[in-house]
Amino acid sequence: xxxxxxxxxxxxxxxxxxxxxxxxxxxxxxxxxxxxxxxxxxxxxxxxxxxxxxxxxxxxxxxxxxxxxxxxxxxxxxxxxxxxxxxxxxxxxxxxxxxxxxxxxxxxxxxxxxxxxxxxxxxxxxxxxxxxxxxxxxxxxxxxxxxxxxxxxxxxxxxxxxxxxxxxxxxxxxxxxxxxxxxxxxxxxxxxxxxxxxxxxxxxxxxxxxxxxxxxxxxxxxxxxxxxxxxxxxxxxxxxxxxxx
Length: 245
Known about the structure:
By secondary structure, the protein is α+β, with helices and mostly antiparallel strands. It has helices at 2-15, 25-34, 144-158, 162-231, and strands at 38-39, 44-51, 56-63, 68-78, 88-92, 98-103, 106-112, 117-124, 133-142, 233-234, 243-244. Strand 10 (233-234) and strand 11 (243-244) form a beta hairpin.
């Protein structure tokens, strides 16, 4: 990914070089090396990450002003002694201003970008100090108002008839609806994955506790029989030796 970022940034350095007061090549390369988790290009991302105990992971994503920035996350599984499914999440604007926070195992964050730049998403596992957790992420940016403005400009330039304009508008609205359906489908898939891990954990819990209780019951029965036999003793050497208490 670092090579792709360099290919996107280096042409800008030619236009915005030292003559225009732009940053140098060394500065840009140093910034890219420090921010390996910066995401460019696509507007939607869908993947999972694993946070170690008391670990923090930050991701940057570019958004233009006026776009709708959304972030959906879900804690799928947690390991360790003290299992705590809470996850601390913060979203910061390019200027460093705190935009949104969350402290839960599942959350949907949605807001309108007020400035253009890279928005920072940080995920902290400080609640769970003795175990790691896996998080499923689904985030991106979509532009509703920008598409409407582009649609009006295209209509004025091309001077199309009403039928073609209606078909074009309907297709764009359909594309937007399909995109939102895809978002909700991803969230439903995250919920299904969470239910699977919860069911697996419950199955292990019931199996181990059932085995442990069975061992305790057998041991208690054996000890009870052993002590009852110790309460009775028989006289040796007598003709009518009967067990006496």
